[in-house]
Amino acid sequence: MTTASDAKGRPHRAPRGEGDRLRVELLDAAERLLAEKGSIEAVSVRAVATAVGVTPPSIYLHFEDKDELFFEVCRRGFLDFGAGLAAALEGVEDPVEQVRALGRAYVRFGLERPEQYRILFGQKVAIPGSIETPDELPGMQAFQVLVDAIERGVEAGAFRDGDPVTMAIGLWATTHGYVTLTHFEEDAPDELPIGGALEDVLDQAIHGILA
Amino acid sequence: MTTASDAKGRPHRAPRGEGDRLRVELLDAAERLLAEKGSIEAVSVRAVATAVGVTPPSIYLHFEDKDELFFEVCRRGFLDFGAGLAAALEGVEDPVEQVRALGRAYVRFGLERPEQYRILFGQKVAIPGSIETPDELPGMQAFQVLVDAIERGVEAGAFRDGDPVTMAIGLWATTHGYVTLTHFEEDAPDELPIGGALEDVLDQAIHGILA
DNA sequence: GCGTATAACTTATCAGCGTTAAGTTATGGT
DNA sequence: ACCATAACTTAACGCTGATAAGTTATACGC
């Protein structure tokens, strides 16, 4: 077992210029293990390393530390999320309905992928020093999509005349809170009637910013 | 140092029936250290033990494990939370203003004690098996306070004619989401303009359920 | 006031964690 | 064919949460 292949026959050493191959494999493994275990603390650096057939210190050739590794995992996950939101806008013309569609898409993502959502939004992820502007923060573009939709609604006279960013914060807070509470409900011993209230909750939130 | 007193001269062994004295001291120390360090992971069992002048294994005579210790810390904190909500209602007659006051009190707690809030509402600590009904879940009574306030508002004709529980869910989701997002903002390198939007967000949410 | 059961706490130790320093080996340009 | 070095390993550090086994002080029955 001193020679270089794991169970899948993978040679341990990548060719010269392609050290990043291991980097990607580490991210894939970390993402998978994270979905399995459900929390960052439950996924050890050692587990990630052995999952791809490599020793733990190799990770530190590609990531500053464990935090950076999992931050990167989350950043990748946010790309899916953003894509889902963007897709929700397609074919919807009315700005109010666009906002409603975004809310539904947001909640759908949160409920269909609870583990991933919890990691992205519900858990404290250390932010590496390499990130300096808010634009680089994962999820920020997704927020901007919402702000833009509201802005269109304001210009169209559908929403009240106010700061779109503030309205977006309120809506984001509502949907995020709804998702989190539904997660909590699922973990709770008996259930609150939260799960079925989405449409009403969205109605209320949107009604709150109508003109 | 084999004999039994720490820096404060505290004898290490409690009298016969009063083993719970150490339990309380451990909870106090854990709460203080949690506030200092800002996260559970940063507070080791060893640190809690030595803070009260005791060895680490002593903790396990009073708590199942580290999770239970810190869940208990938060459960105590929740008594303050409930009291804060109740206090927020005092002197406020108008149901709409009562709901607004509850929202403010909720957010205030979430922002002043972020770690405690994260543990209680963020489902970061496993719920001990000893809890069996929702009523025992921390925060459930607080939710009922909100439902009752809304119900009064509905009866007074101030809020729309609908299910108070559904409206409460929407408002709870909004405040909870607002708190969570503000936590996220504080961890971020630069800031979103979330922190100062509370009053507007509350306005929107309440406006959404007005008659 | 003595004996003794046991509550209250300690000693010693475990396996696992994230991380680092130093060593090794395969690779590709010259 | 050489050799600089990218890519990875070996070995180890100090820390963590946790447990099993040992010790000591206390309070109650007699």
What would the keywords be for this entry?
homodimer; 211 residues; mainly alpha; 60% helix; disordered N terminus; DNA-binding
Could you walk me through the main structural features you see in this protein, from its secondary elements to its overall organization?
2 copies of one chain form a homodimer. With 211 residues, chain A is an all-alpha fold. The first copy, chain A, is 60% helix and 0% strand. The first copy, chain A, is elongated, with a radius of gyration of 21 Å. At the A-B interface, helix 5, helix 7 and helix 8 of A face helix 7 and helix 8 of B. Chain A binds a DNA duplex (30 and 30 nucleotides) through loops.
H/E order of the elements of chain A?
HHHHHHHH
**How many E-type strands of chain A?**
0
- Residue share in β-strands of chain A: under 5%
The Rg value of chain A, from CA coordinates, equals 21 Å
Write a concise synopsis of the structure shown.
2 copies of one chain form a homodimer. By secondary structure, chain A is mostly helical. Chain A is built from 8 helices and no strands.
Please specify the SSE layout and strand pairing:
2 copies of one chain form a homodimer.
Chain A: H1 20-37, H2 45-51, H3 66-89, H4 95-112, H5 114-122, H6 140-155, H7 164-187, H8 198-207
The first copy, chain A, binds a DNA duplex (30 and 30 nucleotides) through residues 2, 4, 12-17, 19, 22, 44-46, 54-58, 60-61, 65-66.
